[in-house]
């Protein structure tokens, strides 16, 4: 994976309210959140881009009031996959 270096003001990172993480981690999390919110990436891909475990990223989406975009079709697919695994 290639990397890009970006200059950000300290104020911007403070306003992002993720000061416990490094600036790079903060930016990655916020960009991944926005990509997921816009439905440009899946939940799993967003978690990967943010460098987080899936359950931690799900918690982050809840903290930012971003819905999980889980549809009835997703439920049917998951239900069908679970039934196959149970056999």
Can you give a write-up of this model?
The chain is mainly alpha-helical. It contains five helices and no strands. It has helices at 10-15, 23-37, 43-50, 54-63, 72-86. The mean pLDDT is 86.
List keywords for this structure.
87 residues, mainly alpha, 5 helices, 62% helix, 0% strand, elongated
Task: Give the helix/strand layout.
Layout: H1 10-15, H2 23-37, H3 43-50, H4 54-63, H5 72-86
Helix pairs in contact: 2-3, 3-4
Give a nutshell description of this structure.
With 87 residues, the protein is an all-alpha fold. 62% of the residues lie in helices and 0% in strands.
Overall SS class:
mainly alpha
Sequence stretches where pLDDT stays below 50 over 5 or more residues? none
- Beginning-to-end CA distance, first to last residue: 39 Å
Q: Determine the mean pLDDT.
A: 86
